Each structure stands twice: as C-alpha cells, then as structure tokens.
C-alpha cells in the first residue's frame, strides 16, 4: 500500500502513547464508512494498541507499514 491510497493522513509522529490512538479515534468519529486513514506514528505501542481498538470498534486494519523511523498504519472506517 502506498501513501496515495489513503483519503486522510494523521501525522502523530513524535506523540507518546496514547496520543496517536486518541488522534485516530477523534478523527474516525467524523469520517464516512469506506474512508481510508493513514496514521503516521513513532510510538511502537501503536502497532498493537491501534489494531486492538479497531477490532473492538468494528473498523478494519488494512496494513502496518514499517519505515526507517516510524510506522504507517492504514485503517478503513466502517
């Protein structure tokens, strides 16, 4: 997956836990089903916290893409 496939990008790089997850939750509430969100994070815990929340909230994890200095987590809103 590439950055161009996301409809929305949330740049939470540099934020500590649970900041990136909170940024995602706040934004997802405002989006229509089918919207693809890219969450950029430097917080390793986001790679487990976000998928756990997505499962509970009923959204889809599309991909976690590890870069040199951060992760891109792709989510589809349901």
Considering the chains and any ligands shown, give keywords for the structure.
78 residues, alpha+beta, globular, TusA-like, Sulfurtransferase TusA family protein
SSE topology:
Layout: E1 8-11, H1 19-28, E2 36-41, H2 46-57, E3 60-66, E4 71-76
Parallel strand pairs: 1-2
Antiparallel strand pairs: 2-4, 3-4
Q: Based on DSSP secondary structure assignment, what is the total number of beta strands? A: 4
What is the subunit arrangement here?
Answer: single chain
Write out the strand line-up for the largest beta sheet, numbering strands in chain order.
1-2-4-3
Distance between the termini: 19 Å
N-to-C SSE series?
A: EHEHEE
Tell me, rounded to a whole number, the average pLDDT: 94
The main β sheet shows up as: 4 strands, mixed
Question: How many H/I helical runs?
Answer: 2
Domain UPF0033: 10-34
Pfam families: TusA
Protein name: Sulfurtransferase TusA family protein
Family: Belongs to the sulfur carrier protein TusA family.
């Amino acid at each position: 997956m590439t950055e161009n496939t996301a409809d929305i990008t949330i740049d939470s790089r540099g934020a500590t836990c649970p900041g990136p997850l909170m940024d995602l939750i706040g934004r997802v509430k405002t989006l229509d089903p089918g919207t693809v969100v890219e969450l950029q994070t430097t917080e390793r815990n986001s790679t487990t916290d976000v998928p756990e929340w997505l499962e509970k909230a009923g959204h889809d994890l599309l991909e976690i893409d590890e870069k040199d200095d951060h992760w891109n987590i792709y989510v589809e809103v349901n």
